[in-house]
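no rush on this but wanted to send it before i forget. theres a chain ive been looking at and ive put its sequence and its fold in token form underneath. i want to understand how the tokens follow from the sequence so walk me through it. thanks a lot i owe you, the record is right below:
>
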Amino acid sequence: MSTPPPIPSGLLQVHELVRDYTLPRENLFTPPATVHALKGVSFSVAAGRSLGVVGESGSGKSTLARLVMALDTPTAGTVHLLGRNLHALPPAELRQARRDFQMVFQDPYGSLDPRQTVERIVTEPLQAQGQTTRAEQHEQAAQVLAQVGLRTNDLGKYPHEFSGGQRQRIAIARALITRPRLIVADEPVSALDVSVQAQVLNLMQDLQQQFGITYMLISHDLAVVNHLCDEVVVLYQGRIVERGSPGELFRNAQHPYTQSLVGAVPQVQPGRARARRAAAAAAAAAAAKVA
């Protein structure tokens, strides 16, 4: 019998993760089809570091995020966080363990309950833990709101009173309130305007430096993971096809899919930009002479 490969070391350890989904039968005479969403994915993330998981729609990114968050059960493989196999924990222990890992979802418009105040939304993880008083929850909510750049008097407002970037800050505050060791962010800026994306990514970077948070960032955009992540794994059809630092992948992508991702990142060409500015200046000068 062959010896299984060792489980990777790190704060988060994902080992040979497999997830299959059985589709509904199309008729009574054929067996149901199976979708192999993940096919033996393994990686680790050290404490205080950031891992980017990049791939196209259908590559298995969101399935991986759900398994790491213990929101779904793997067909095979394990997810260890701080040495604990999350999918082997009894429900009560898993509920307590969730203090150490939280999630920021893609859509700040859909992930916040419009009927609840910001205070209720942000303190929801504390309420689920059941270990703090209402006064303590209010104090901690005010604290994390300040840490994400919002004001204490925003606690009594509702999500519709905020912009998209502010709503994502509220979602980050909700994830931050339990002081987690790991935050899984599933496309956290894809629903935001480009001008706001950098602000949110800079905020996440500042919080990492302040609290030593470990990030697993799900994205389809190499430019986003380049901003925040120390290492990138590229998922393609349920498998990791390439891994390395963002700089390495930009300079020397090996897999054709990674090469297509790198090719999709806008490239600034200073020479052309200067030429366009010079042409615009010349045209403006000529127009001024005519006037």
Notes: Residues 234 and 240 are 5 Å apart (CA to CA). The first strand starts at residue 12 and ends at 22.
